[in-house]
Amino acid sequence: HVAIKLVVMGTQEAKIIEFMKKVTSQTDVDSFEGVVPVLDVLHYDENYLFFVTPRWTHYEPNTRYDVVDQVLEFVHCMLKGLSFLHENNIVHKDIARHNILMNYLAADDYPYERDYCFRESLRFQCLIRYGIFDFNLSIKLPPFVKSSTYRLPIDYAFEGPRSEPFDCLHGELDYRPFAYDVACLGILFYEEFADIIPLAPLLAPLIDKMVTLDIDRRFTASQALEFFLRLRSEMSEEELKKRIPRDRPDVTAGWDEFRRWDSLPCGFIQRWAAYREPRPSLPRRLLRAFCRHHWGWNTVHYIRLILRWVHGSVFFWRPSPSTLLLPHDAH
Questions:
Q1: C-beta of residue 49 within 8 angstroms of C-beta of residue 43
Q2: Low-confidence residues of the chain, pLDDT below 70?
Q3: How far is residue 21's CA from residue 303's CA, in Å, rounded to a whole number?
């Protein structure tokens, strides 16, 4: 089975699809890059192209996992996929559950119980993979643009996920989209697996370093992947095969309340204390409470805009073109 999508030529999405056709592979699960592979690109005319991918199933939120290692395989695929995109100077801009697929497809008339058993069998054989897809909001930057300094106007942040990181909660004027991608994925990990953190403590420092307010200290996608692989390699077979309860408890604490360390062993907390994100300061919490109101966010935003204009007028400062390179300029 395959899926076929129509894309307008000359867009960022078309550019990325053409690139994906050259570099993605579907040969085997071990060479999987963490993104849904593009099998072929069919040029219809000078205005449109079709691209072909395997027909996979949408990822289901709160999927039933049996053991810890199955959860970590999902985390691994997502980190691998985001690292692959960022290493190729592609910012996704819409990291969310609805843009994740599983390399599995059930027949429409297949009974649910048989479908579930078959899917679980694939998981136990370590054959299920999860891939990032959908590049309609994505941007591929030229090689000379550094992802660590690249910024976009803040309006672009609101095109993507609704679970917004700290980066856009305080009336900001612009943001760093590569770091924003990482934070969105960290939030997704927490929302999916908050109740599993006591069984897989490595998720606590990983998530904290992916969502930290201090963007200069935030993991890049490749750093997050490296950290994850390091801690996963230290886990014993017994820890990886720990059973996950069928009735998973509801976690009421939000990702930004920083309570994911509460039930972890003291030794683990001490070892990774430097990775633990502190609660925001009182002034920061007050600013965030003010900006939760639409009028509050706009007030802070326009104050920042005025201050930037004053700073530019007095010190003749302007952002460099590469810093605020817009998508239509990224060719």
A1: yes
A2: 25-31, 61-63, 106-116, 162-163, 249, 252-253, 314-331
A3: 45
∠ CA(3), CA(96), CA(102), 5° rounding?
Answer: 40
Per-chain mean pLDDT for the chain: 86
Nearest to 185 by CA among 58, 323, 85, 55: 85
Q: Where does residue 6 rank: exposed (0-12), middle (13-18), buried (19+ CB within 10 A)?
A: exposed
CA-to-CA dists, residue 67 to 72, 133, 237, 250, angstroms: 9, 26, 11, 18
For the beta carbon of residue 193, count every other beta carbon within 10 angstroms.
Answer: 24
Q: How much is the pTM?
A: 0.89
According to CATH, the topology of domain 1-55 is: Phosphorylase Kinase; domain 1 (3.30.200)
CA 218 from chain centre, in angstroms, equals: 13
Residue for token digits 């095109």? 159
Quote the CA–CA distance of 310 and 308 in Å, as a whole number. Answer: 5
Shortest CA distance to 219 belongs to which of 186, 256, 258, 190? Answer: 186
Q: Which amino acid is at 127?
A: L
Chain segment 237-288, per-residue pLDDT in tens:
999 999 988 777 677 667 777 778 888 999 999 999 999 988 888 998 899 8
d(CA 221, CA 64): 26
Instruction: Provide the token pair at 233.
Output: 């390699």
| Sheet-wide strand order for 100-102 | 57-58, 100-102, 130-132
Enter the DSSP assignment of 67: B
* Contact present, 298 and 121 (Cβ < 8 Å): no
Please tell me whether residue 48 adopts helix, strand or coil conformation: strand
Task: Show me where the domains of the chain are located.
Answer: 1-55, 56-275, 282-315
Q: Residue 301 is which amino acid?
A: H
H or E element in which residue 262 lies: none
Length of the chain: 331
At position 65, the amino acid (one-letter code) is Y
Specify the CATH architecture of the domain 56-275: Orthogonal Bundle (1.10)
Give the pLDDT confidence of 28-43 residue by residue, as tens digits. Answer: 666 678 899 998 999 8
